[in-house]
Amino acid sequence: MLAGLSTGGAWTGFLLMTPWQMPAIRFAFALHSVLLVFALCGLFVLWRKQRWLLRWLGYAVLLLLVQCAFLLGVRSGTPIWMTQSCLVPLAFVIALGWYGWFVAEKRVWRLVAIGVFSVYALLDLAPFLRYLRHAHFNRIMPDSNPLADISGGGAVFEEQPIAFYSVSQLDRLSASLCAPLVLHARLATVVEHALAAPVRNACGFWPELHYGGVAAGARHVAGVSARAVSAMGIAPDRLVAGMAWYSAVQAIAPPQGLALTHLERMRVMPDATYVGFGPHVYEFAARPGDVVALTNRFNLIAPLEVRQITVNGQPARKLFDEGDSLLYACSGCTGETAKWHIELNAIEENSDIVVIASH
186 lies in a domain? Predict the structure, then answer.
């Protein structure tokens, strides 16, 4: 636990949240470790100059040990979100080390400490700020999951596409969702994953929003990532906070949508993972230039497997892949009508299939 808290996060972060190759990751981790040791050496400087602070150091170390022992006794695996209470005393210990250098008697050591601390902060923050800025792929370890248990770790990793949507973007988007709407594709998952709370804050009331569903006569809106627009070749009706809106849509599945009219947990339940898990077959007609958006409401809990997608008997072309949101189009379609055939292994209630018209 202590190793995972002090150095495991840096190693996992460099490995899974940066685009670096292994030699660069090892170098960054080694440099991070050396700088961390330098910071802790400041405790010896502090011992010579301000010994009264060492009492608080002892309190922090004791609190850290007790909290780690408590978490280890709660369950066999320790996911990262359970360790946040341990970070406060750990950060205090490291901060005392830096403080020891900053108040050193010799001015040269204070200047060195400021320079080293700047490198330390840059090394820790820059890769992750870059990741938050360009989070289109996530690296995972197929043979382990250090996010589920911080003591775990794998020897290899692979990349999976993700759709990162920031809180500030969601806040800007929410003010446009106060009218009754049926949401589809990326727009639906972004709002539902936030439990519609930002929308409630922006509108001042719980709007009548539904997630997926055919709902004849309702106003349907599909939203996809702005990065997907060029791949689709269809200009959006609106572009709001990085989300492209399309109102000319045809809902295919599921037959019933879900509404969230008050704050509660998500409607995708883990115990429903293997209930009605396909196969499901959908056949419908669209125009040759239309795009089909296939969205999974919660990829980790409700897996979706594409068995076959054809248009006029030929394999459909995948235009865009964000992990739980896929866009398909017809390759070489002619005439007035394109006949789609989709076969999925999925939970129908957790899936969303919609046709985005090519105008």
Answer: yes
Cβ proximity of 301 and 271 under 8 Å: no
Same structural domain for residues 225 and 95? Answer: no
Whether residue 155 lies inside any domain: the answer is: no
Last residue of a domain, one of 111, 134, 157: 134
Check: CB of residue 325 under 8 Å from CB of residue 293. Answer: yes
| Residues paired with 139 in a beta bridge | 159
In terms of domains, do 125 and 172 share one? no
> pLDDT truncated to tens, each residue of the chain (359 aa)?
888 888 888 888 888 788 788 899 999 999 999 999 999 999 988 887 777 888 889 999 999 999 999 998 888 888 888 888 898 999 999 999 999 999 888 999 999 999 999 999 999 888 878 777 767 777 778 777 777 787 777 777 777 777 778 888 899 999 999 999 999 999 999 998 888 889 999 999 988 999 999 988 899 999 999 889 999 999 999 999 989 999 999 999 998 887 766 666 666 555 555 556 778 999 999 999 999 999 988 776 667 889 999 999 999 999 999 888 899 999 888 888 999 999 998 888 888 999 999 97
Alpha-carbon 330 to chain mean position:
30
Is the C-alpha dihedral spanning 337, 342, 348, 352 positive or negative? Answer: negative
Whether residue 306 is found in the same domain as residue 251: yes
Domain-located, residue 65 = yes
Radius of gyration in angstroms for the set of CA atoms belonging to the chain, rounded to a whole number: 26
Alpha helices in 134-196 (DSSP H): 167-174, 185-193
In this structure, the answer to whether residues 128 and 189 fall within a common structural domain is no
Which of 120, 124, 108, 89 is CA-nearest to residue 45? 108
Q: What's the CA gap between 222 and 215, in Å, rounded?
A: 14
On whether both 216 and 73 belong to a single domain, the answer is no
In a domain, 108, yes or no: yes
Q: How many domains does the chain have?
A: 2
Across 163-247, the runs of DSSP E, i.e. the strands, are 181-184, 209-211, 220-225, 238-240, 243-246
pTM: 0.74
Range of the domain at 52: 2-134
Specify whether 111 is located in the same domain as 179. Answer: no
